[in-house]
Amino acid sequence: MTEGRKQISGEPRRIASIALITLTAWLLQSCTESEVGEAGPLTAEITGTSKMALSADVMEKWARSCAQCHVAGQAGAPRTGNAEEWSPRLEKGQAMLLEHTIKGFNMMPALGYCMSCETSDFIAMIEFMSGSPRKESMQ
Amino acid sequence: MISRRKFLTGSAMAGLFGSSCAFSSTAKSANTTPWYNWSGELSCVPAGRVVPKNEAALVNYIQSTTGALRPVGSGHSFSPLVPTDGHIIVIDQLRGLLGYDEKSGDATFGAGTMLADLGAPLNEVGRAMINMPDIDRQTFAGAISTATHGTGISLGGLSDYVRALRLITPTGKILDLDAASGGDVFEAARVSLGALGVISQITTKTRSAYRLKAVTTVKTLEDALDTFDADAASNRHHELFPFLYSDYTMSLSINETDEPDFIPPVDPGADQQFRDIVDLWMSTPAMLRKPMVDSVVGMMEPETKVGPSYRVLSNLRHNRFNEMEYAVPLRNGNACLREILNTVMAQKIDVVFPLEYRYVQGDETWLGMHSGHEDFAAISIHQQAGYDYKTYFDIAEPIFWKYGGRPHWGKVHSLGREQLTTLYPKFEDFRKIRAELDPHGRMLNAHLKKLFL
Q1: What is d(CA B262, CA B306) in angstroms, rounded to the nearest whole number?
Q2: Secondary structure (3-state) at B260
């Protein structure tokens, strides 16, 4: 759910320089933390940041998948419980968010690294992270 | 965290099997969640997802059903190994360090353990993987089943270090395989494309924990290739990322060190910047990019990263892509790389991603892309997800063939049984074992039928 793009501006030399440096960083050092978080510490970290709750089973899936990016906001992912960051995504409709989650969108990998997740799990996770209960049919 | 103890002890076995035979399974309906791979390019609507809670549940499911199955790890393959209208089996509950043998240094993991989760528990017992690929989201089983590898002329791929594994066959038999007792079935199962059944646990060789220092520089491609053999021999890991429409390449060398941790700060906006820049470059005529790139490479400073081996070798990729990779005999690597670069630029193929060029030690697996008695040069080409990759890959693939290339099983390729038989001396032996273990073809989807029938 890493939506929205900013415009590139500036003269070509500067842009090319940024491009190469960014490309290097992307290829070789894209992430400072390599381990996938397990449910325990991440659950504690985000407690209270969302208005919504997840079942233990879905929380365990979330901690091993979505949390990789949606806790720290890696790759431009909206952070869990951050209404300001979720607002422009929610404006596109929760059904669109679900489609992007399943099919992938920009830097959001298809299925969000959760091969065991069903559609109902993704709906609950979107509600949990955005803090917004569904207002429309998402299926 | 499991403390030091003999691996495959009775207690470890009991823990893996658990006391229940629970698995969750969904039946196909209008609301069945489709499956997509990481890049979003491959998809299917399976009959349902099966998520065994433990190994006993996996065995129970396979024994009690007869339909088509495909195991799925992290969905990180770009070849259609998973798509099926049968059930997909998700092995992510079979994870973690199950045991460690102090005497041999061998460590046993649940097959669904993500590569990213191998390093820390090994480090706690003073051990480390001998080598790792540069992306760490794959499951251990998915990685060995596709012969996924890292870099290093003196280092093998992950499958090369597998000492034992447990395979649940399509008929529900539990096979504990190792080099001594497993014989041909073990050799076949080390790289099996998920065609022999479902792997539930893997025992791997390890080494003492170590630290690495990675140094990235920019060189002219000519200079980098002139010294590549010497650099590959003198560095533990050495590889190039040649830019298209440029005279330059990034060069990455990684060696053991005692230096303290140094992780360069990562710009939180870098990934989005990268995507924006890719979009910009893709909107610039390809031949006009060369002066843009070449005029600024001198501004790039060397970059350094130091840390435990598992933090330096592998990481998470945010920007999605599709990829083709072939291994060509080492003696052909330089010529093959140059021909791809020249052909792509001559035909003005619109791609921004650099290639990847590295050496990997030959190994003794049957279907590993580096199997045999000589070493290989692995060459990867990428295209950003969402952009046309077929034009690029269709032009490059015959060049790989010309130089005797073997495809990476988890990446895009178009080969079938006939060609593969000529590339792998043990291919027919593998086919026979596959037919014996899976007489009804439960594990075969359309892609695997093309490879093995």
Answers
A1: 5
A2: coil
Contact B108, B7 (CB under 8 A): yes
Any residues with CB less than 8 A from the CB of B357 and at least 6 apart, and which? B228, B239, B240, B241, B242, B333, B337, B377, B378, B379, B380
Which of B395, B380, B437 shows the shortest CA–CA distance to B177? B437
CA distance A68 to chain B (A): 9
Contact assignment for A30 to B271 by CB distance below 8 Å: yes
Residue B12 pLDDT > 70: no
Q: In terms of Cα–Cα distance, which of B317, B322, B319 is closest to B77?
A: B322
Q: Which amino acid is at B54?
A: N
Closest CB from A25, A68, A109 relative to B266: A25
Distance from CA of A79 to the nearest CA of B (A): 13
Identify the weakest region by mean pLDDT among A2-6, B264-268, B372-376: A2-6
* Contacting residues of B for A76, CB less than 8 Å apart: 268-269, 271-272
Rounded CA-CA distance B309/B120 in Å is: 10
Q: Is the pTM of this model over 0.95?
A: no
Pairwise CA distance, residues B281 & B345, whole Å = 15
From the list B210, B224, B161, B239, the residue with the least C-alpha distance to B312 is B210
Say which amino acid occupies A36.
V
What is each CA distance from B257 to A35, B104, B105, B269, B302, in whole angstroms?
A: 22, 24, 22, 30, 17
A30 to B216: CB separation less than 8 angstroms, yes or no: no
CA A30 to chain centre: 16
**Residue A14: C-alpha distances to residues B246, B353, B384 (Å):** 17, 19, 22
User: Token pair for residue B164?
Assistant: 């034992």
Closest by CA position to B213, among listed B234, B193, B231, B237:
B237
Six token digits for residue A27: 């290829």
Q: Which residue has the tokens 């353990």?
A: B113
For residue A106, list chain B residues with Cβ-Cβ distance below 8 A: 275
Closest residue of chain A to B305, computed from CA coordinates? A29
Given a cut of 70, is residue B415 above it in pLDDT? yes
Q: What is the pLDDT of residue B266?
A: 66
**pLDDT over 80 (residue B411):** yes
Task: For residue range B204-223, list pLDDT tens digits in order.
Answer: 999 999 999 999 998 999 99
A8, closest residue in chain B (CA to CA): B276
Q: How many CB atoms lie within 10 A of CB B108?
A: 24
Is A127 in contact with A83 (CB distance < 8 Å)? no
Which of A18, A115, A118 is facing B273, going by the closest CB pair?
A18
List CB contacts (< 8 A) between B293 and chain A: 16, 19-20
User: Cβ B354–A68 below 8 Å, yes or no?
Assistant: no
Chain A CB within 8 Å of residue B264 CB? yes
Asked if B48 and B87 count as a contact pair (C-beta separation under 8 A), the reply is yes
Cβ contact (<8 Å) for A111 and B279? Answer: no
Cβ–Cβ of A15/B90 closer than 8 Å?
Answer: no
Q: How many whole angstroms separate alpha carbon B256 and alpha carbon B262?
A: 14
Query: In the structure encoding, which two tokens stand for residue B262, read together?
Result: 């140094």
Other CB atoms within 10 A of residue B335 CB: 14
Residue B363 has φ and ψ, to the nearest 5°, of -135, 180
Instruction: Answer whether residue B252 shows pLDDT above 90.
Output: yes
